[in-house]
Specification:
Layout: H1 7-15, E1 33-41, E2 44-52, E3 59-63, E4 86-91, H2 110-127, E5 133-138, H3 140-151, E6 156-162, H4 168-185, H5 189-198, H6 206-218, H7 229-237, H8 244-266, H9 270-273, E7 280-286, H10 294-303, E8 310-315, H11 322-325, H12 327-346
Parallel strand pairs: 3-4, 3-5, 5-6, 6-7, 7-8
Antiparallel strand pairs: 1-2, 2-4
Length: 347
């Protein structure tokens, strides 16, 4: 069974061939920083992009979702963060600017990505002269991010999990059960019968998976619909940092990464492997997430031991891609985290 990528992610893969950088971000003067570079992680050159208005600002490393779907093409949406952070985007192994056809399949596993996250974090601390950095992970990025922070908390000031992936098999079951309960509550016997006939995941076919997704979405009249496929693609194509060649590699990397990492992701649960994180933890959840179970995110949050403090923040007008659906709120919350951690250090 494939990873539960939301329709907008599939749309960007299907339409990325139209991509061309249509806008340009202005160059930053000193003390700013704006550079793309290759960093060797796990013996493989990979691309990172570093941008901020002041080199003295704290570093925020953003781990993209997918797997295989870079955040760099969408980073301009949250460019205001560059005022208070030095923001680092990393096209992970096999994704976007880091895609290459000769990547060893054996290296496409969760442990490798966790190790490379730690390796990159150390590199950023060293080269940007920071004792610790902030780590934000979206969806798949939150899955490897939580594991990296749990293993090496000394590298991080705080961890921000965005649409936190906890346990995909369990998440899919919870989503199916929620859909069935909703059908029964709304008096939709035909929909309930369809869901009962298909049964709980793992689904037998892709068609069953798509049908369950469409049925559960149709029953949510309040589901935020501002992030349409067209809107998502438009945002990606506005990227100042991606060329046509990069877009083509995005498509290749998305397919490659999803295929090679699927079984590994489905075989691991943070409920078991990350019961504690020894840095301040902030989990951001879309109230209407249709890709991962928001109640499961909340359940994990309640179980998680976080001696440095933990906070759960609902994004009331978001589905899965909350940092693009509510960018103003997203930026506001990150600035709050920055202020809070600074106060904690002074105290």
């Amino acid at each position: 069974m494939r990873l539960p990528l939301p329709p907008p992610l599939l749309a960007i893969a299907a339409t990325a061939f139209f991509g061309c950088a249509t806008t340009r971000q202005p160059a930053l003067r000193p003390p700013g920083i704006s550079r793309e570079e290759k960093v060797v992680l796990g013996r493989l050159p990979q691309t990172i992009f570093i941008r901020g208005r002041d080199r003295e600002n704290p570093v925020l490393l953003f781990l993209h979702g997918g797997p295989g779907l870079p955040e760099m093409p969408f980073s301009h949406v949250n460019a205001e963060l560059e005022r208070d952070f030095t923001v680092v985007h990393w096209d992970q192994r096999g994704a976007g600017k880091s895609y290459r056809p000769d990547i060893p399949v054996a290296s496409m596993n969760t442990d490798e990505f966790v190790q490379e996250t730690v390796q990159l974090s150390r590199y950023l601390c060293r080269t940007l002269h920071q004792r610790k950095i902030y780590l934000a992970g979206f969806s798949w990025g939150s899955f490897i991010g939580a594991q990296a922070v749990a293993k090496h908390p000394e590298l991080y000031s705080a961890y921000i999990g965005i649409s936190q992936v906890v346990d995909l098999p369990l998440s899919e079951r919870w989503l199916h059960r929620a859909g069935l309960a909703q059908a029964e509550q709304q008096g939709l016997p035909k929909v309930a019968a369809q869901l009962q006939k298909i049964g709980e995941p793992p689904y037998r076919t892709r068609r069953e998976e798509r049908l369950v997704n469409s049925l559960t979405k149709a029953m949510q009249p309040d589901l935020p619909r501002a992030m349409t496929r067209l809107r998502y693609v438009y945002l990606g194509l506005q990227s100042p940092y991606y060329s046509v060649e990069d877009d083509i590699n995005l498509v290749r990397g998305l397919k490659f990464s999803g295929r090679e990492l699927e079984a590994d992701i489905w075989g691991r649960s943070l409920l078991k492997c990350v019961p504690e994180i020894d840095v301040a933890v902030y989990l951001f959840a879309g109230r209407y997430d249709t890709v991962v179970s928001a109640p499961l995110e909340k359940f994990y949050f309640e179980k998680l031991r976080a001696p440095r403090g933990k906070h759960f923040i609902w994004f009331e007008h978001s589905d899965h891609i909350l940092h693009l659906e509510e960018p103003g709120r997203f930026q506001k919350e990150l600035l709050h985290i920055l202020a809070e951690t600074r106060r904690r250090r002074r105290g």
